[in-house]
């Protein structure tokens, strides 16, 4: 289960970084924050 959460977290963080590079600031910040929360060791799971 933690492996799936890690993969989802990484995908969300990478998507957030790409959104920031395309100057979609709000969407990028939201994706990065959700990715950090979902990933193991994040705020909610850990």
Structure commentary:
The protein is mainly α. It is built from 2 helices and no strands. The chain crosses the membrane at residues 6-21, 26-45.
- Structural class by helix and strand composition: mainly alpha
How many separate helices? 2
* Radius of gyration of CA atoms, rounded to a whole number: 11 Å
- Low-confidence blocks of residues: none
Average predicted confidence as pLDDT: 84
Percent of residues in beta strands = under 5%
Following the backbone from N to C, one meets helices and strands in this order, namely HH
End-to-end gap: 12 Å
> Percent helix among the residues?
over 70%
Summarize this entry quickly:
This protein is mainly α and 46 residues long.
List the helices and strands and how they pair.
Elements (H helix, E strand, L loop, with lengths): L1 H20 L3 H14 L8
List descriptors.
46 residues, mainly alpha, GPGG_membr, transmembrane helix
């Amino acid at each position: 289960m933690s492996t799936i959460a890690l993969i989802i977290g990484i995908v969300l963080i990478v998507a957030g970084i790409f959104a920031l590079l395309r100057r979609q600031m709000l969407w990028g910040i939201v994706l990065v924050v959700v990715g950090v929360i979902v990933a193991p060791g994040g705020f909610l799971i850990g």
